[in-house]
Every structure is written in structure tokens, then in C-alpha cells.
């Protein structure tokens, strides 16, 4: 019996024939990286390969590394194994990795979404025999509202807060979510201020994307300057002294977890907006079907539920443990009980 082309071990997803890992979570010699989030691109590898768009992003986050950039659909061969990168649509520079050897094709999605956000290159269907898919939101209860509608709601919320002379503080991850929000915030409402982590990352991406102007929050920034305006901040800033000096303010967060009642309350935010950089349930199913794959490996997220459903549909589906988290972090633990109760009621 032929060995699997890709295997999961204690360091990551490994292609033995090429001696290459895909998004390894421990230091290895050769790593192909799907995107810049910290759970997928880690420090310590000898050699990195990623999409050219992602090169400045991971250099910003990891420091001086030996990295090679590849273009979309560019084939590169390592010990007779053919690799290529294809758009994942998750965040800017995010890729799926196609691996081919002796006529067998595997695709590793990393994290992905199929809705075009206008920033990242839209998701591309890649035909394969085995499809490794994330399942971050692999429950039927997750169904996303179109991005344009969500952003209209965010801008309306900001305008209402401005009318009440309150500062709007909007939380989003510093890489990906923050830029997606920034792209569609209406600067005609007021000034867009940023936390340092978001400002620094956005400056790395600005040469590639047309963003509205932003103003960095500094020690010299007065709360009077912020009144009626909007501050983009990472979730880690919530409850910090940095935030408390901005009163009076109203808080909002953009996340797929906001689809559930109680998630906003548990996060102690005033407003929740359902906006995720991952697929919802139907998009996951549509993506699996479109690949034509017979075998599906489900990773990070609601893997058991999603893989069981795929088996009921006739797929050869199984799960594999990884150290990827995505949006499955603190919020997941907080809404776990609620998700279970809502999906079974």
C-alpha cells in the first residue's frame, strides 16, 4: 500500500517525499506557509516558502527569516513533488497548497473563506483527490450575512454613536479582520484612529490595498479628540487602561461568534457584528463538493460534527488534530455551552 502523500505528526503536516512541512507548529528545515496568522506561520524554521504578498507580512511578524515568495499557480518542484499556491480568500496573501506526486493530488486549505472581501484574492476551487479543510465554523447554525450589509450596519452604528458624542471602539484582529473593517469604514463619518498593533500591520499592507487614512492613538491623544470618532483596536486591548481613558465610549466587535446570543455579553461588548474570515457551514459543504475530492480530512474546529456529516453524504472523511486555532480561542470556550444548547434546541 502506498504511503499517504501527506501525514500529520508532532511537528505539522509532512510530505516525506519532499521533506517539507505545511504550516508546521514546531521548528523544521523546510516550511510552506499558507498565511501570516501566528498559528500558521511560526518562528524557527530554516527555510520558508509562501505567496509573495505574504512575504512582507511574515517578515514583519517574525523578523529576519529566509523566505522565498511564489506567485499564484506557479509550480515549484521539490524531489519530484509538484507544489503550487492558490488563493484561499481568508486574508490578504492567504493560500491553499496544492501537492501532486505520481498523479495523486492533495490540497491543504489552511484557513479560507469563499466570500470575496475585496482585499484578499478570492478563493479558488482546486480539484484534488484529498482535501484538507478547516472546520472553524463547521456547524449548521453558522450562516453569514453578506459583507456589504454588515459594513452598512457598522457605519450606521458609528454614525449613531457620533451623534451622541461617544467614541466608537471596534475590535478586530490586527491582521486580516482589522484591514477588512478599515477598507469599508466610511471616513465621511469621522476620523478613524488605530491601536499601534493595527497601525503597524496596516502600514505593511497599505502598498497593496487602498485604505482610508488613519490616525495612530498616542500618549498625546486626548479623549476629546476621539469623541464621535472610531478607534480600531485588537481584542487584547479590551478592558485595558489604554481603553479606559477613552470614556465615554461604546464598544463593538466583529466575529463569526457574534452569531450566537450571549457571545456579545460574555465578551462585555456593547454591539456584536457577525463577520468572519472563515467559511460558514454551507460554504464549507459547497467547497468540499467543488473540489471533486473523495477523501476529506477535517482540521481545527468542529471536526467531529462536520466529518460525520460528510460521511453521511458518502465521503471518506476523517479528522486530524492540529495546533491551529484561528478564531477558535477564548471566545470558543465562552460560547461552547451556548452553541450546544442552541443547535440542539
TrEMBL record:
Going by the UniProt record, its keywords in alphabetical order are:
Exonuclease, Hydrolase, Ligase, Nuclease
Q: Which Gene3D superfamilies match?
A: Ribonuclease Z/Hydroxyacylglutathione hydrolase-like
Query: Domain of life of the organism in this record?
Result: Bacteria
Report the EC code(s) recorded for this entry.
3.1.-.-
Q: Which InterPro entries match?
A: MBL (IPR050698), RibonucZ/Hydroxyglut_hydro (IPR036866), Xnuc_lig_assoc (IPR026360)
Instruction: Note the NCBIfam families from the entry.
Output: Xnuc_lig_assoc (TIGR04122)
Q: What is this protein called?
A: Ligase-associated DNA damage response exonuclease
Annotated organism of origin: Flavobacterium ardleyense
Amino acid at each position: 500500500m502506498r504511503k499517504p502523500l501527506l501525514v500529520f505528526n508532532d511537528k505539522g503536516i509532512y510530505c516525506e517525499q519532499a521533506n517539507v512541512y505545511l504550516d508546521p507548529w514546531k521548528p523544521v528545515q523546510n516550511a510552506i506557509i499558507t498565511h501570516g496568522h501566528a498559528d500558521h506561520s511560526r518562528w524557527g524554521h530554516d527555510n520558508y516558502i509562501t505567496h509573495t504578498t505574504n512575504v512582507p507580512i511574515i517578515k514583519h511578524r517574525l523578523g529576519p527569516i529566509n523566505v522565498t515568495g511564489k506567485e499564484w499557480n506557479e509550480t515549484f518542484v521539490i524531489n519530484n513533488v509538484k507544489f503550487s499556491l492558490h488563493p484561499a480568500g481568508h486574508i490578504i496573501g492567504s493560500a491553499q497548497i496544492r501537492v501532486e506526486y505520481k498523479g495523486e493530488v492533495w490540497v491543504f486549505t489552511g484557513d479560507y473563506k469563499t466570500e470575496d472581501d475585496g482585499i484578499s484574492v478570492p478563493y479558488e476551487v482546486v480539484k484534488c483527490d484529498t482535501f484538507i479543510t478547516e472546520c472553524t465554523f463547521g456547524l449548521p447554525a453558522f450562516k453569514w450575512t453578506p459583507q456589504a450589509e454588515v459594513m452598512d450596519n457598522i457605519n450606521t452604528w458609528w454614525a449613531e454613536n457620533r451623534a451622541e458624542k461617544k467614541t466608537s471602539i471596534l475590535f478586530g484582529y490586527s491582521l486580516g479582520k482589522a484591514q477588512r473593517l478599515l477598507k469599508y469604514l466610511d471616513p465621511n463619518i469621522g476620523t478613524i484612529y488605530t491601536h499601534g498593533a493595527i497601525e503597524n500591520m496596516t502600514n505593511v499592507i497599505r502598498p497593496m490595498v487602498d485604505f482610508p487614512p488613519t490616525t495612530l492613538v498616542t500618549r498625546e491623544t486626548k479623549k476629546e479628540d476621539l469623541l464621535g470618532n472610531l478607534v480600531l483596536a485588537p481584542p487584547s486591548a479590551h478592558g485595558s487602561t489604554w481603553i479606559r481613558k477613552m470614556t465615554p465610549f461604546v464598544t463593538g466587535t466583529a466575529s463569526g461568534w457574534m452569531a450566537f446570543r450571549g457571545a456579545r455579553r460574555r465578551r462585555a461588548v456593547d454591539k456584536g457584528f457577525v463577520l468572519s474570515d472563515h467559511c460558514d457551514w454551507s460554504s464549507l459543504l459547497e467547497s468540499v463538493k467543488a473540489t471533486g475530492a473523495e477523501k476529506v480530512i477535517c482540521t481545527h474546529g468542529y471536526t467531529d460534527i462536520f466529518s460525520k456529516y460528510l460521511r453521511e453524504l458518502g465521503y471518506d472523511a476523517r479528522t486530524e488534530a492540529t495546533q491551529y486555532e484561528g478564531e477558535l480561542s477564548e471566545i470558543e470556550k465562552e460560547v461552547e455551552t451556548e452553541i450546544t444548547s442552541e443547535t440542539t434546541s
